[in-house]
Amino acid sequence: MPDSQPQPPAHNSPRGDGSSDGGPEQTTLVLSGARLTDGRNVDVQLSGGRIEAVGTAGSLPAHPATRIDLTGYLLLPAPAEPHAHADTALTADAEGPVSHEPEEVQRRATEAALLQLGHGATAMRAHVGLGEPHGLGPLAAVLQARRSLRGLTDLTAAAMPRLLTGLAGANGLAMLRDAVKMGAAVVGGCPDLDPDPSGFTEAVLDLAAEHGLPADLHTDADDPARLARLASQAGGLRAGVTLGPCAGLARLPLEAARRAADQLAAAGVTVTCLPQGGCGAQQPRSPRPAPVRLLRAAGVRIAAGSGALRDAANPVGRGDPLEAAYLLASQGGLRPLDAYGAVSAAPRAAMGLPEVRVEAGFPAELLAVRGESVAGALSLGYSRIVVHRGRIVARTSAVREYCDSAVAVALDLPRQSRPEPEP
């Protein structure tokens, strides 16, 4: 089951842009002169939330479409954020205890989602803690933020109880069931923190199977025997299982890590690593992320998430998928295109979202980044234009200028001062 169900076209939207009910943009939009990863310069026509046509640059007529000049931009499938903590985001500078009042959680979740949308992520899975003393309040607030953001970004909630086994876990299990009734699209939690990790995992997977939902579990993955049991339990869940951040795999002996990777691959489990740092839901934190090359070699799908976004676990977290991909390429040993796939195609697949390609018929979920190659975009991709459901929903402009001097003129140093395209 996808995190976010597709929305039908809004043929009668009062404002003509699908904003009344979150439907896709109906006005035809042509993105002209964009560069693709294969080196082609193309025009891309969008309509009804999908890519309608892709042709050689200058080949698609503008009238009656709106034309956006993307000369100098690389056009990519939009990233998706598989591992965010919207209820605790942006709390690093809070004076005193962090407020979990619903209004405050909703404000933080909304701001965090918009921040990550500006970076390019048009879908986000937010892991939300359940339990005393806040109960289901933070989840209700995140679900309200989801409703208010419809049409801008797809925000969905993964419910995270603290305990699920023994007498203490009975209340957590009841609360998890209530969370599903409220609208949580994913069930999860941290089995490492439960006295019976295998029992916790079994309870989550049973509930996920009962409701046809995916499961997303936080684990350090530093215990091979426990990880083998988890992989065995996860293999039968049709909607899919995601584990993260799995940093403990990097601390295991090589052969033990390889066996664990083979078990996860056989079970069809996705691993979400956190290259930008850990998250408060998983302790202890490892200075290294999961061993992505080892996992990929075994056939495990690797997605990359942001984890903590300026909260106590990482007060400088940026929530930028391009930074996560940059770190996978610069420190994880992945090729730039594979690193970008870990923040776009892989998380979309793990979240049950439709595949995106810059080809006719695919969803118009796109990111235009100033640059000519994926490597350049990961290195210096500051200017960005984000397309969600066929319309531009966010824009970030960066201008680089050098003072006038003989050497600047002689070397023809690049300037990013061309006026930004207007919708």
Structure explained in plain terms:
- There is one protein chain.
- The protein has 423 residues and is an alpha/beta fold.
- Helices cover 30% and strands 20% of the residues.
- It is built from twelve helices and 16 strands.
- An eight-stranded parallel β-sheet has the order 6-7-8-9-10-11-12-13.
- α5 (224-234) runs parallel beside α6 (254-267).
- The radius of gyration is 22 Å and the shape is globular.
- Residues 4-22 have low confidence and may be disordered.
Structural class: alpha/beta
Overall shape: it is globular
Strand order of the largest sheet: 6-7-8-9-10-11-12-13
Into which percent range does the helicity of residues fall?
Answer: 25-40%
Total helices: the number is: 12
Number of DSSP-assigned strands:
16
Distance between the termini: 34 Å
Low-confidence stretches: 4-22
The SSE order reads EEEEEEHEHEHEHEHEHEHEHHHEHEEH
Instruction: Characterize the main sheet.
Output: 8 strands, parallel
Radius of gyration (Å): 22 Å
What would the average pLDDT be, to the nearest integer?
Answer: 89
Q: Strand share of the residues?
A: 15-25%
